[in-house]
Design a protein that fits this description.
The protein has a domain of 142 residues: ApbE-like domains (T-fold), CATH 3.10.520. It starts with 5 loop residues before the first strand and ends with a strand. The radius of gyration is 19 Å and the shape is globular. It is an alpha+beta fold.
Length: 312
């Protein structure tokens, strides 16, 4: 689903074939709406100025993205598409030299407005990239579809982004792993650094240990672009796990944190905790050691907090 793995665990009388068909229907809806890889998707046509009509999915994601952009002081912005494409992270050929100053002229969610179901751009060259929010939003779509069937106990996992409700097959909370963020870790689930116990919650992890490359000067170019500078985000954070009420929020906040220096991420996490947003940060420490930071309200969900830093 969405080009990655899908797992659905649910207590239901529905057959696995019925659940699978439901998920594939949602997959089709999502790709038709928000995919930047499908040329005929609504989002691609909006980016190419072939239409200005938005659907409910794009409108919802834009509204949430605007709120998180404001909360982050512009660190999070879904209009980074021209930069992401120039760096070669959106199925586009990497540019030998990225003209950052030129591309930044088309970046900024303030250049977009939605009025009466239509997208208004202050510049036709503004493009939207929902890769930092769409997968989480689709997890929410899938979870809500299960709830419409009357299913109360479930876990939906699309590419490591999760939403769960109720209890697992053993009657306990759902247990979800956080991977160890070392460069080249492409073995999904093989290296688990921490296990969280969750129910009635969503979780997403963002990191720069899979999607990156080294440029001609040997500099690490990660897929998280700082929209303020137009360059790869510089941070000691290796991964940011976010637990939030919806998976779309968890997905977007994870990307936001990864675009921040550690101190800013910690300060922002502290402010957001009162809004039901909890974090588990893995940062680079001395001598290749990890430094772990966590929201105090997340502590009951963690298997272990010994030697970790509670965010004050």
């Amino acid at each position: 689903m969405l080009g990655t793995f899908l797992t659905v665990s649910a207590r239901t009388d529905r057959s696995s074939a019925e659940v699978y068909d439901l998920m594939m229907h949602i997959d089709t809806l999502a790709k038709r709406s928000m995919s930047i890889f499908e040329q005929e998707s609504l989002l691609s046509r909006l980016n190419d100025n072939e239409t200005d009509v938005v659907d409910e999915h794009i409108q919802h994601c834009l509204s949430l993205a605007r709120r998180i952009s404001e909360q982050s002081g512009g660190v999070y912005d879904v209009t980074v598409a021209p930069l992401v494409e120039a760096y070669g992270f959106a199925a586009k050929d990497r540019q030998a030299k990225v003209n950052v100053d030129s591309l930044l002229e088309f970046v900024g969610i303030d250049k977009l407005q939605v009025e009466d179901g239509r997208l208004l751009k202050s510049d036709s060259r503004v493009r939207i990239d929902f890769n930092s929010i769409a997968k989480g939003y689709v997890v929410d779509m899938a979870a809500e579809a299960l709830e419409e069937w009357g299913i109360e106990d479930y876990l939906v996992d699309i590419g490591g982004e999760v939403r769960c409700s109720g209890v697992n097959a053993k009657g306990g909370e759902w247990r979800v792993g956080i991977e160890t963020p070392f460069d080249g870790n492409n073995s999904l689930g093989a290296y688990v650094q921490q296990v969280l116990s969750l129910t009635d919650a969503s979780m997403a992890t963002s990191g720069n240990y899979r999607r990156y490359y080294l440029d001609a000067d040997g500099q690490k170019i990660s897929h998280t672009i700082d929209p303020r500078t137009g360059r790869s985000a510089v941070t000691s954070l290796l991964s940011a796990t976010v637990v939030a009420p919806t998976c779309a929020e968890a997905d977007a906040y994870g990307t936001m944190f990864m675009a921040m220096p550690l101190e800013q991420a910690l300060a922002t996490a502290q402010k957001l905790e009162s809004q039901g947003v909890k974090v588990y940060f893995i940062a680079a420490g001395k001598d290749d050691e990890y430094e772990i930071y966590y929201s105090r309200s997340l502590a009951p969900s963690l298997a272990n907090v010994d030697g970790y830093h509670a965010i004050e």
